[in-house]
Write a structure and sequence with these properties.
99 residues; single chain
């Protein structure tokens, strides 16, 4: 049985917004004043489980990338087999930075 799903998944639900624009002109000074009042009675945010998991995954990936970037300047440009001492220095330096 097919489920009729909506084509769009809104994070921010449709809003009711009232806007009042007040423009006044002072003929003595030649200056116009503008006031804008915006009333938003309710803002509803709705995310699905899948969207929530995607947000969590993105934040974890960004944190991991930031951590890798912090240590990248010490990372050897060759493989472990080519420079094992360099990789040990890299590992030690990464631990020292975290302490």
């Amino acid at each position: 049985q097919l489920i009729d799903r909506p084509k769009h998944h809104y994070l921010l639900q449709p809003l009711d917004v009232n806007v009042i624009l007040d423009v006044s002109f002072n003929p003595m000074t030649g200056v116009a004043k503008t006031k804008v009042k915006i009333f938003v009675p309710e803002v509803a945010v709705q995310i699905e489980d899948r969207q929530f998991r995607e947000i969590i995954s993105l934040s974890v990936n960004m944190a991991n990338f930031a951590k890798l970037e912090k240590f990248s300047e010490f990372r050897p440009q060759v493989s472990v087999h080519q420079d094992p001492k360099g990789w040990w220095r890299y590992a030690i330096q990464a631990v020292i930075i975290q302490v």
